[in-house]
Specification:
Blueprint: H1 16-19, H2 40-61, H3 69-89, H4 100-113, H5 121-143, H6 149-163, H7 170-179, H8 183-188, E1 197-198, H9 200-207, E2 223-227, H10 233-248, E3 252-257, H11 268-278, E4 284-285, E5 288-289, E6 293-297, H12 312-318, E7 323-327, H13 329-334, E8 344-350, H14 354-360, E9 367-372
Parallel strand pairs: 1-9, 2-3, 2-7, 3-6, 7-8
Antiparallel strand pairs: 4-5, 8-9
């Protein structure tokens, strides 16, 4: 963390007493497991992170902002491999037992100690430029849908299609390096519904609970907090069209982005720059006023998030929200799929690890749209 501000719990998260919150969806171990022996699930995830090392090493070697990048990249690969192998022998080493938060944190810590600040910067910039050039066309396609469930479903499909741009997945990193990815083709090739977690129809009902006619022109959700994920198509062609629709319906939208770079996740400063490029001289986002669009620094520095520790800025902005959206596999599935909130919530993302698909009982590249409604609202 670059900020010295004290981190606080996300205010809309139910207290641990009420929800038993832990930033880990998949149970890596149980109290009955031997603390000195790695469980099958721990071994599976350690191997997942081991398999990702070559792609991270390749990105680090190509980082021309770091002197001796090749030698430093080799040190990263060696150190991280050794730590992961240590976990196999003793899961309590290095601050364990391991879970996805700790495994991500150790990887980022080693990279930063070796001088690597943002090894995915070049590819993020390239993908942001491509996505910005497609933004108007995607908005035009979205706006061609009449008000109603089909329009919302098209926006949701756009989020899934954008979310596939994830260089934290070894398989997708290989595909991207070889072939690139097409946003519009991804929209058309999503796995068919029903998805592995599919509450979209329930959300459609809530979405239109207060009829949005020209006479009323009001959304049920007055404020939405959206935890965003990746750069490129994900944020620009997936999340921003959804955020624009909320703004169009009168909702105040807070986009919460990472403080520091991690994989190809968009950062707070990058998101400010992206939106400034997309707005016109009147501050409009393709015809929609952005005065109710706020960008917040979440205080996070990983591709996953522990909501027990967010920035004070975000906590202040989120105190009265009606909707929380956690987008992406890391934030919405691997760490917070079962997190409970004091308001309505949506967890949305694509399943990009076979281990996650196995846990959920779904398919690789399956989709998750988990909606929880707070009945007291």
């Amino acid at each position: 963390m670059e900020s010295d501000s004290e981190m606080v719990a996300f205010p809309l998260l139910l207290t641990p007493i009420e929800s038993n919150y832990r930033a880990c969806t998949i149970p890596y171990r149980f109290p009955s497991d031997n603390p000195r022996k790695a469980t099958p699930t721990e071994l599976q995830w350690i191997d997942l992170f081991l398999n990702s090392i070559p792609s991270f090493k390749k990105r680090a070697e190509a980082d021309d902002t770091v002197s001796d990048s090749a030698a430093r990249a080799e040190k990263f690969a060696q150190r991280y491999s050794e730590i992961l192998e240590d976990f196999k022998k003793d899961p309590e080493s290095h601050g364990g037992p391991p879970d996805c938060v700790l495994l991500c944190r150790l990887r980022e810590q080693i990279l930063r100690e070796l001088g690597f600040r943002d090894i995915f910067k070049k590819v993020k910039d390239e993908e942001n430029a491509k996505a910005i050039s497609l933004f108007k066309e995607v908005i035009r396609l979205n706006d061609s849908f009449e008000e109603g469930p089909k329009r919302l479903e098209n926006l949701a499909r756009g989020i899934f299609a954008g979310n596939i741009f994830d260089l934290g997945s070894a398989q997708l990193a290989e595909v991207f390096s070889r072939d690139g990815m097409s946003f519009l083709a991804s929209c058309q090739n999503l796995v068919p519904r029903p998805w592995v977690v599919d509450d979209l129809d329930s959300f459609k009902v809530r979405w239109s609970k207060k009829s949005w006619k020209k006479a009323s022109f009001r959304s049920f959700f007055l404020q939405a907090i959206i935890f965003v994920d990746n750069s490129g198509a994900d944020i620009i062609l997936g999340i921003l069209p959804f955020a624009r629709e909320l703004l169009r319906r009168g909702t105040q939208v807070v986009l919460a982005a990472n403080d520091l770079p991690s994989i190809n996740d968009v950062t707070y400063h990058e998101l400010i720059e992206i939106i400034s490029k997309l707005k016109d001289e009147k501050g409009m986002l393709e015809g929609v006023d952005t005065s109710n669009l706020l960008i917040a620094n979440s205080g996070n520095d990983l591709p996953v998030i522990d909501l027990a520790s967010v920035s004070q800025e975000l906590a202040y902005l989120a105190s009265d929200a009606d909707l929380v959206v956690l987008e992406g596999m890391g934030r919405g599935i691997e760490t917070n799929l079962y997190a409970q909130f004091k308001c309505d919530s949506v967890k949305i993302g694509m399943v990009k690890h076979p281990e996650v698909a196995q846990f959920l009982g779904g398919r690789l590249y399956d989709c998750v749209f988990k909606y929880n409604e707070v009945s007291s609202q």
